[in-house]
Input
Amino acid sequence: MCCLKAIFLCLIVVVKIQFCKPTSPTESPSDKSILLDFPDDTLQLILIGKRINNLKRGDIKGFKNLFDIELCNNKIENIEPGTFDILPKLERMNLSENSLTKVENGVFNNLNIRILDLSWNKISVIEETALNDMPELTSLYLGNNEITKWNPNWFQRTPKLIRLVFEHNNLNSLPENAFQNIESTRTDNKTDMCWLDFSYNQITELHPKTFAGVKYAEGINFKNNSISDLPPGLFSSLEKTSLIWFWYNQITCLSDEFLESLPPTLSDNIELDFNPWNCSCVEKSHDWSKAHGKTLSVLITYFDCVVDPLLKDGDAE
Output
């Protein structure tokens, strides 16, 4: 949704310099006429709910100090490659709540933006190099779209990218080396940790090497998918993470091979609540956790299993 911050800033602009002039229901201004209302020294270009349909090369130019573009809640369907070129100080771009169906090559490449929000569109296609060569990008929001396939070749030469939000899409799997271009470009002394959100998709399968090369993760969210199996070695490269969620999936059991492949510091941080657990497997996992002095978070909700409390206090019913 349009960020509150953007709305607040828009109100300030209206009061002070009247940039966000309302459009009457009968008025149908051209896209360019709206953009021409802004002076050359504009710092923030905020046009929310202005019924802009298309953005073309040359529509946004001459703003040498522009650092923030907020064009959410319009009806943007197409953005011509090169539209945002020659904006040297641009850092943030909010294009959420529009009608974009694809992310094209040449629209965002070689920009110095740090935050790009494309959530709440109708995006089903991301061209292979469309998200490459963004040297300052740290956060990418593509939630609430219609993306069905993940391409591990995305994000080449995006060395600072640490936050990916793809929740509420139609992904059904994540392939081998899904994040190879994120971790492979990170320097050894990088302290930032990744945040990966794939909740509310249709994921049924994770490749054993989906996270190959990923060493640090603040959080990995797979809530509300249809995952039934966690393959051995899935998280073997992780050295540090705060939390991994698998709530509301279809997991009935954790294999011995998966448990043995967990890095020593990781098992305490996996949340497996609200899955249709097999009772005998819960007992087996309980035995494993006792033998290794580990804790796994499993909330039994679909039936009663007569076992000692498996895991964290209060998690077993």
